[in-house]
Specification:
single chain, 151 residues, alpha+beta, 4-stranded mixed sheet, 3-stranded antiparallel sheet, 17% helix
Length: 151
């Protein structure tokens, strides 16, 4: 296997390169943290009091809902947005909490205190997503090819 590289899923920090009978390890130039977006910083005390807990609500790459406390003390993965909001409300304490729904896709970076079953479903969906192209080709409807629009 001359000049062939083992392909690993995104997020790996090294790969093995076979060159004849010699194998060498090549480190990934891009750090692992650059692969997914990061949670924003908590707004300043002039916008939101530090005594009020803040939870970020977002979707991950496979479409499941993520709820994470702004300081990273707790978080969870959920099937529905309503479940993520309920988790934030109950974790925020008796005085309540603030929630910020984010438009960008994020991955949970703390231990999952949410639904364990949904975490397993998310792991399975993530594995399956490696086999589905990001932009699948158009599907013919009723056996008729789609017409392209020309300007």
């Amino acid at each position: 296997m001359i000049g062939q590289a083992a392909k690993f899923p995104p997020g790996q920090d090294a790969r093995v390169i076979f060159d004849g009978e010699i194998a060498r390890i090549e480190k990934n130039k891009r750090p692992v943290a650059d692969i997914s977006a990061k949670f924003p910083k908590r707004p300043g005390p002039d916008m939101l009091s530090n005594s009020i807990p803040l939870f970020f609500i977002a979707q991950n790459k496979v479409g499941l809902w993520i709820a994470r406390e702004a300081e990273g003390r707790t978080g969870g993965i959920f099937l529905f947005k309503k479940s993520a909001l309920r988790f934030a409300k109950t974790s925020g304490g008796a005085s309540g909490c603030a929630t910020m729904v984010l438009a960008k896709r994020l991955e949970l970076d703390v231990e999952n205190d949410g639904s364990r079953v949904v975490a397993w479903i998310g792991a399975a969906l993530k594995l399956l997503s490696h086999y589905v192209p990001e932009y699948p080709p158009p599907v013919h409807i009723l056996g008729k090819p789609l017409k392209s629009k020309r300007l």
